[in-house]
Design brief:
Blueprint (H helix, E strand, L loop, with lengths): L16 H12 L9 E2 L1 H7 L2 E6 L9 H10 L3 H5 L2 E4 L3 H13 L3 E6 L4 H9 L3 E5 L6 H12 L10 H16 L10 E5 L4 H13 L4 E7 L4 H8 L25 H8 L2 E5 L1 H15 L9 H8 L1 H4 L3 E6 L6 H19 L1
Helix pairs in contact: 1-8, 3-5, 3-8, 5-6, 8-9, 9-11, 12-13, 12-15
Length: about 350
């Protein structure tokens, strides 16, 4: 797990972006769960500092994605919205868009990889959305979605590279800074799960409005570390097309055109975790904290557990970004956690 110092941004933030985040929070107030920061003495003891979990795994549709999806659809002109919306996603954004579209009573079509977890595919269908499947290793999901949008004359709701989507995710940062658990004091650092960078960009911008000295770290799988490599290089780099990971929610091809310059400006660095560490974090959350988290939603927790030197004697806010996990994978994670706990006690 490596932290790095980020370079200067290639483009500035939109001048009204923080206002867009506040507007998003107003739109979302009656729609989403304002998830509370959770604290566990056992976790604090393990990392040697104070850890506050932001449990978006308890959010509607099982992840933070409803925030950006609903805000983006709400921002559409009514005539455009009524034609329905189209999105691409491996699952969590798909569910967020499907739920948001259902709340607005408009059709939704989701381009999803054929190997997306069954629990996510079934949830999308249950919410009334249409799925168009594709092969993530040989087909371009954005090209498929854009072609459908042209054919059906429907607006696109991208999974991260859209200002209204990023602003919706930023509402999490506003909630963090107002949470009673912090007692009006800013945390030392925030760990944010990172795929395309929309969650990190939104949270970091919102946190830094009132607390510019807080360190915000993105966390991504070590096999899909496009954000880490891109920030180090000062330009957007891609993951290999055949990249595979149990953190399916974070397997984006490259940092976003919009999210990248924001994260260049706002992030203190990037941490990476292995699939094995993410799975152990899933097991730890379930067995020790009684929280159900999917691998991609647990990478920030994995980073805290694996970087105790970075967390010692500090207050760290850790995002749990999603909890849509297959039961077999959850069972595997819990079994692995029990084996690790038994080994430590011996």
């Amino acid at each position: 797990m490596v932290a790095l110092t980020c370079g200067m941004p290639s483009n500035p933030l939109p001048t009204d972006f923080i206002q867009r985040i506040h507007l998003a929070e107003e739109r979302l107030r009656a729609v989403v769960n304002a998830t509370p920061l959770l604290e566990f003495a056992s976790l604090n003891q393990r990392v040697g500092g104070r850890v506050l979990l932001k449990p978006e795994n308890l959010q509607r549709a099982g992840s933070f994605k409803i925030r950006g999806a609903y805000n983006a659809i709400a921002a559409l002109p009514a005539a455009n919205r009524q034609r329905g919306v189209i999105a691409w996603s491996s699952g969590n954004h798909a569910q967020g868009v499907a739920l948001a579209a259902a709340l607005f009573e408009v059709p939704a079509t989701i381009v999803m990889p054929s190997d997306a977890p069954r629990v996510k595919r079934e949830a999308v269908v249950a919410l009334g959305a249409e799925i168009v499947a594709y092969d993530r290793y040989s087909e371009d999901r954005e090209a498929i979605a854009k072609a459908l949008a042209r054919e059906r004359q429907c607006p696109l709701i991208p999974s991260y590279d859209h200002w209204d989507v990023i602003a919706g995710q930023g509402s999490i940062g506003l909630e963090i800074m107002r949470d009673p658990a912090l007692q009006g004091r800013a945390p030392d650092q925030v760990f944010v799960c990172c795929g395309g960078g929309g969650l990190a960009a939104g949270i970091a911008t919102a946190v830094h409005e009132s607390a510019p000295k807080v360190s915000v770290f993105a966390v991504e799988p070590d096999v899909a570390d496009d954000t880490r490599r891109s920030l180090k290089a000062g330009k957007r780099l891609s993951n290999p097309a055949a990249t595979a990971s149990i953190c399916d929610a974070l397997l984006t091809p490259t940092p976003g055109r919009l999210t990248f310059p924001v994260n260049q400006r706002e992030l203190s660095g990037v941490l990476t975790v292995s699939d094995e560490a993410a799975l152990r974090a899933v097991g730890y959350a379930a067995a020790e904290l009684r929280l159900i988290v999917e691998p991609g939603g647990a990478v920030a927790l994995a980073a805290a557990l694996g970087n105790t030197d970075l967390c010692a004697n500090k207050t760290t806010v850790v995002t749990l970004s999603g909890g849509n996990i297959d039961s077999a994978l959850l069972a595997k994670a819990i079994t692995a956690q029990r084996g690790e706990s038994s080994g430590r006690s011996d």
